[in-house]
Amino acid sequence: MSGIVPVILCGGSGTRLWPRSRVVRPKPFLPLVGESSLFEAALARCPVSGGFAAPIIVTGHKQLAHVEAQLGEGGGAQVIVEPSARNTAAAIALAACRLPEEAVMLVCPSDHHIADADAFAVAARAAADLAEDGWLVSLGIAATAPETGFGYLKRGEAISQTGFRTAEFVEKPDLERAKAFLAEGIYDWNGGIFAFRVKDFLAELSRHRPQIAAGVAEAVAKGGTDGHRFHPDADSFALVPSDSVDYAVMENTARAALVPADMGWSDIGNWHALHAALQRDEAGNSMRSSGAVEMVDCRNVLVESDGPRVSVIGLEDVIVVVDGDDIMITTVDGVQKVGKLSGAMNQ
């Protein structure tokens, strides 16, 4: 895996994990599963000892201090500071324009949880091998439930022992269609983890989104370094169209491939997803608190508290979060609406 460059994308604020996730301490930088933050865990999965090159972190001004505090020595890491948010196609292009054209990029979100780091490394190696042959590769996350909140990837013909052509990109399906995907067994979740050579990604971006490619190239050419930081030109970057890498490149290229990966992945996209990633007792309950927590006759309840005593009786499928002066209580069915709370929107 020599030469694989981890590109860690640090953006977003995780409003659906309010009140724990806030502007002052966003989701990627919280120890939501285990002792390390999600960002620290993403870095740890790509060690130099495992054949990875020094990482490139793409982030914004609001998260720069968090990145640098948790990056530590950094091992030669480069931090690209986006002057404005222009979505993932532009963010990845910024990193690509700072790398040799033959380099293989492994693009990873900074705020996902992967329970099996060894399985991740195996899938990354397989994806990098395909990328060396000119494929633009997604890691297809093993679907374990009929999720309606994820996009799906359909496996086509095999192109290696572990890789397949991507036969179809499917937007978030309704429940009945998601159940059919799970039963068919050839659909994986699209987890937003990609591998491709710099030259192949930039060629496809230029072909399908020439304004993004040209605008990012100009912003990089006019940008400047500040130690380990790189600052693209703000005026040029502000004119770059905003688009996701899926829409801009992956759904348009004729060289899309996927490598299935069963690695205990979760996007930790809401409180229910976090609860599923945590250790639970025989009743499905989980509690994490610096104070006392007591549950009586409860099932599938998550309690998170930064101090105050929490007592819960006779509830099922409920999330209770106490953070300072803020208390948030929701059913499992309501977790997707947490980000709509005024507290979350004005965090």
Automatic annotation (TrEMBL):
<dbReference type="InterPro" id="IPR051161">
    <property type="entry name" value="Mannose-6P_isomerase_type2"/>
</dbReference>
<dbReference type="GO" id="GO:0009298">
    <property type="term" value="P:GDP-mannose biosynthetic process"/>
</dbReference>
<dbReference type="InterPro" id="IPR029044">
    <property type="entry name" value="Nucleotide-diphossugar_trans"/>
</dbReference>
<feature type="domain" description="Nucleotidyl transferase">
    <location>
        <begin position="6"/>
        <end position="282"/>
    </location>
</feature>
<protein>
    <submittedName>
        <fullName>Mannose-1-phosphate guanylyltransferase</fullName>
    </submittedName>
</protein>
<keyword id="KW-0808">Transferase</keyword>
<dbReference type="InterPro" id="IPR049577">
    <property type="entry name" value="GMPP_N"/>
</dbReference>
<keyword id="KW-0548">Nucleotidyltransferase</keyword>
<dbReference type="GO" id="GO:0004475">
    <property type="term" value="F:mannose-1-phosphate guanylyltransferase (GTP) activity"/>
</dbReference>
<dbReference type="Pfam" id="PF00483">
    <property type="entry name" value="NTP_transferase"/>
</dbReference>
<dbReference type="InterPro" id="IPR005835">
    <property type="entry name" value="NTP_transferase_dom"/>
</dbReference>
